[in-house]
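Here is one chain, start to finish.
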Amino acid sequence: MPPLGYGRTVVAAGESSAPHVVPGGRAARGTLRSLALLVDRMATLGTSRDGAQGPDAATAVRDALRQFTARVREAPLLCRIHEQRFVLDWEPVDRGLTRDDPLLGTLLFRCLSLGVGGITVRQGAAPAELLTLATLLARRRTEEDTLVMNDTPTSMSAVAEQQPRELLRSWSVLVTPADHPGGHRLATPPDGARGVSAGASSMPTEVKAGVSTEALQGAGPTLVRLAAATDDMACSRVVDALVPIIDQAEYRGDARLLEQVAVAAARQAHVVAGGGGRLALERVMRRLQHRSSLELLAGRLPYVEDRTMLLELLARAGETAVDILVKQLMQADDGAARRVYFDSIVQLDIAGPTLFDHVRDSRWFVVRNAVALLGEMGIEQADLAMLPLLHHADERIRVAVARSLVRLGTVKALQGLHAAIDDASAEVRRIAAISYGLTPGTGTVVRPPALRLAMALEKETNEDVALEMLASLGKLGSADAVQRLLRLAMPQQQVGDTGEAPREAWLRIAALEALVKARGSAVMPHVETLMNDADPEVAQAAFRLRG
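Its structure:
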């Protein structure tokens, strides 16, 4: 299931004071420009890589996609659109830059016309995800198509004519609209139709449909009194009246009323802080920790505008709350609701035993969700539970496990991924190739030998995987890796590979770029040699790298 610490925004929607301006030449600007180039080519030449718009168009799009993928391979993209300008890594881009650069100017215009407020791309994003992002930005404003990726999470569109809070979301990509920096709001269900506990499911429909409105009106004066109570005695009297309301709401399965009481109590607790009424409010908070109440409140999470107060209350319950939210996640039949539950569990940041139990579940989607949560929460001890799943028969599980292991980045996780370089799944191999270029976050360890990666490269047929392999060989930078890269970058007649099929320009260019990353100025004599290469694309790349 997903990803990304998407809850953090680059610039708050309401900020009025802007930080200092970013001068030209930053790496983030280059990444944004590579996205702009891809979007421009897709908009003018067609949005297909399969040659539907002609081989030249497909090649141009593919070249731009390679450039954008290479940029994202080195660093994530954190971009917001604030006051009609790009904000990269929390710093605004000079307006003159988008005015003088047609590509960036056009991309900014597209983002504004589409209502895009933020673009976040995680480092190492898959080319398919980047292509979907570019497809979204290249489309016309009048198009109503909903982009859906065959992955978790999926992109989301408006529900019941509401403005979506996520225009696109995949494992490594998030696009949010200008008005809503994160999350996704569902249409509010009929009173009592959702969030009803199992024990209340047999309640007659006509009773469930009318109870929330009536009860809310009856509880209204009490909640008003609660907001005005700032001393122990006044707050105690209000709490005495609130506890029976909570009891009745729980008994009737009235999740909406319970939500109103819980949010009001949590807000008032912030108001009084350590002052008068705190102890009385604590009594309400403890009462709301009953499992039945927590289940009702958890059922309301996808339908509330501001989930902060409910999550604060759920966090008090610890592993019990995680258990409830995980069950809601597994049972939810709506993609947006699943996203809310997933994000809520990540925000609680409590890895209860339920998650580890689900890793061994027989249902593929349960296992995928569990490993995705453990990876996103950074539970390093989960690597041992995940590693056997790299041999699972279901490709969807292996992909989810590979993504989570690379997120954990432990020594064991990366070693397990190194061994998956020969997996039948191209995406697993791609992630395994990335792992060769990573250093575990705990301590200093010896880099893996390049031989196995080089051997896998020899038989690799997927271009995206091969590009990641070449990039990781450059990051390894060992003598074996450098020799292999030289052999691929130089003309075949020069290295004695005349019997092999001619190498494509993209392969030689990627090998050359990896060489420069591995050894820098030490390989400049070879780069200069290639400035006169028979292939004009290779010669142009060598000229650029030499400069």
